[in-house]
Amino acid sequence: MLNGKKVVVVMPAYNAALTLEKTYQEIPFHIVDEVILVDDFSKDNTIEIAQKLGIQHIIRHEKNKGYGGNQKTCYAKALEIGADIVVMLHPDYQYTPLLLEAMVSPIAYGVYDVMLGSRILGKGALRGGMPLYKYVANRLLTFFENIMLNQKLSEYHTGYRAFSRKVLEKLPLHHNSDDFVFDNEMLGQIIYANFEIGEVSCPTKYFKEASSINFKRSIKYGLGVLRVCFCFRLQKWGLAKFKIFEDIQPERK
């Protein structure tokens, strides 16, 4: 626990056998109470390694539900076991577990509702192996999103995220996509609900075993991001209603 808050790490896994143990061993268990791994019908021995490591909660999907579908299971289970703070940590070792305390502390002490591990803060993204086209796309999309969503975030596309329980209870995540654009829909909902977002600089790690979407799926994701932006703005202007936003009552500031 941290400041009396129960901290739960969720790991959305797909073919993570080669990197799961290394990721798990670096989790700072002096603040993390429990770990949930959701295996999205992997074709390798991810489940066997998770069992060997003694991960407390292991869930296996009987069919592949996609990255967003995996997260829905992760967050539902975290709320079920009483988490106060939930951190999504990819088991592919692309994001360092050593930053977990920095991610959790601002939420535990009531400074922010959501924390993002940004690969863009600082100058390490390209040095860490991020492909140039992804870096450029990240910067362009983030610039557009900041305008459309009226924010000043350095990055919207990181997979390293921490949330307070209140955030996860309030967002209608069941309306979100089961694909990669789930992440962006979720951030759009968080901003629509007026939750406070903080960022921590996170080093980038791109290597053979780290998961990454290909160019074709990146294009699909980028188009999905643009759709979320336009839906957000139209809903804010009262010109249309969209399921991912219509059930959200914004927090008072």
Overview of the molecule:
With 253 residues, the protein is α/β, with parallel strands linked by helices. The chain has a single domain (7-246), classed as Spore Coat Polysaccharide Biosynthesis Protein SpsA, Chain A (Alpha-Beta Complex). 41% of the residues lie in helices and 14% in strands. The protein has helices at 20-25, 46-53, 66-80, 100-108, 124-127, 132-149, 165-170, 182-192, 215-236, 243-246, and strands spanning 7-13, 34-39, 57-60, 85-88, 114-118, 161-164, 197-201. A seven-stranded mixed β-sheet has the order 3-2-1-4-6-5-7, with helices on both faces. It is globular and about 55 Å long.
Concise description?
This protein has ten helices and seven strands.
Tags for this model:
alpha/beta, 7 strands, single chain, 41% helix, Spore Coat Polysaccharide Biosynthesis Protein SpsA, Chain A, seven-stranded mixed β-sheet, 253 residues
Layout: helices, strands, pairs:
Layout: E1 7-13, H1 20-25, E2 34-39, H2 46-53, E3 57-60, H3 66-80, E4 85-88, H4 100-108, E5 114-118, H5 124-127, H6 132-149, E6 161-164, H7 165-170, H8 182-192, E7 197-201, H9 215-236, H10 243-246
Parallel strand pairs: 1-2, 1-4, 2-3, 5-7
Antiparallel strand pairs: 4-6, 5-6
